[in-house]
Amino acid sequence: MKKTGNVWMNELPFTWELVSLKRVSEIQGGLTLGKVYEGPLIERPYLRVANVQDGHLNLQDVTTIEVPEEVAHRVELRPGDVLMTEGGDLDKLGRGTVWSGEIPNCLHQNHIFAIRCFKHKLLSAFLAYLTASRFGRDYFEATGKRTTNLASTNSTKVGLFPIPRPSIEEQRAICKYLDNKLNDVTQIVNGIEGQIATLTAYRKSLIHECVTGQRRIVEADINRVKTHG
Predict the structure, then answer these.
(1) How confident is the model at residue 30 (pLDDT cuts 50, 70, 90)?
(2) Is 25 helix (H, G, I), strand (E, B) or coil?
(3) Please, which residues have CB within 8 angstroms of residue 223's CB and are 6 or more apart in sequence?
(4) Any idea what DSSP says for residue 10?
(5) 37, 71 in Cβ contact below 8 A?
(6) Fewer CB near the terminus (10 Å): N or C of the chain?
(7) Is the dihedral of CA 181, 184, 190, 196 positive or negative?
(8) What is the DSSP letter of 100?
(9) Are residues 189 and 61 in contact, defined by beta-carbon separation less than 8 angstroms?
(10) Rounded-to-integer distance, Cα 203 and Cα 197, Å
């Protein structure tokens, strides 16, 4: 390990480096809604803050907007962009979600940052995992501007987010490891939820049978309940 002198992460593996996000990516701002344009316009879909959820995208309700072609080109999303919301609940502020080109020619609102990683320096998936880590949450929760119910960040603070950066090969290995572990957790959660759904359905069926007289409660049932608490 080596000392970094950085308040957010003061030690790193010796072969890693700590760099600001703005040094290894391009931070793209989005559309300002309500702006009046002159000349020919084209219609494009665009993402709102509501479409970028905690670690995933909600694309069931995507609206469109008419803008000049040059504006659309400037704020168009590309596969691999990491989407970060500018405002919202404090615990979700700055959490990254990777855009995979789900909607062709899609734009984004100015309250969403599109982080375009320099591919030879930083993997999009690695950045997304960093923003979801305890380290990432601490940074954005501490630097976010808080109001009564919500919080916000800005492009400067996003750009200064410290990135503990191993080699691309090690980033890829870390992402693969986390993908596999999270997939295991997802399978366990799905299994438990399936069991809960089955037991809930059985409980409803049992109650229905008892109250309609289809099932009689006998002394053995009462004793079994007493035995198992």
Answers:
(1) very high
(2) strand
(3) none
(4) -
(5) yes
(6) C
(7) negative
(8) -
(9) no
(10) 10
CB of 24 closer than 8 Å to CB of 16: no
Q: Is the pTM of this model over 0.85?
A: no
- Classify 4 as helix, strand or coil: coil
Phi, psi of 25 (to 5 degrees): -160, 170
Which one, of 49, 46, 142, 44, lies nearest residue 90 by Cα?
142
For 66, 109, 155, the CA distances from 34, given in Å and listed in that order, are 11, 11, 21
Sequence-ordered list of residues with C-beta below 8 angstroms from that of 121, at least 6 positions apart, any chain: 24, 165, 168
- Which position has the token pair 């069926």? 205
The helix/strand/coil state of 31 is: strand
* Token pair listed for 216: 């009689």
Q: DSSP letters along 153-170, please? A: --HHHHHT-EEEE--HHH
